[in-house]
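Morning, I've got a small favour to ask if you have a moment. I've been staring at a protein lately and its backbone has me curious. You're getting the sequence in one-letter code plus the fold written as tokens. I've dropped the whole record in just underneath, so have a look:
=====
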Amino acid sequence: MKFTTAVLVAGTAVTLVTAVVGAAPLWQDARHQAERNEALLAGNQIDWLGQVSTNPDLAELWKPENMETEEYMRLMSANRLLCMLSLRHRLGFVPKWHLPFHAAWIMKSDVSRRYCKRFGDLRAQEAEGDERAEHFTRVLDRAAANAPLARPAAV
């Protein structure tokens, strides 16, 4: 190989390495921006769920026709809790192997199971195509199915 060819090849290699090393922070910045956007949007949803679960007038506007306002408010409160867990999971604060524990704890509540029964299909449709959201939904479904049913109080 001629000296000039070797210099050209070495220069090209250095340029490619520099481009890759220079692109890594840009990729990481873009990923962090996407996480910030996701957290902001999820925060907006959680705030709205907080309002609709505590304000009967607002709940009345958004509830399904065949549902009582108070029940809708209770279900949206459960949804809020699930959305908070989902956000923590998506941001990596709840490891994959801890998620079943958290889901089982939430599904001990009758209102959480009622939410999943009433709106679980909608949550599954929203998750389609997002592997992490689909996994989250499967874990919730399993926890709801395995949750002990409420027992009547002893007399």
Q: What stands out?
A: The chain has a mean pLDDT of 87. Residues 107 and 144 are 5 Å apart (CA to CA). The longest helix spans residues 3-52. Helices lie at 3-52, 56-62, 69-90, 99-106, 110-127, 131-146.
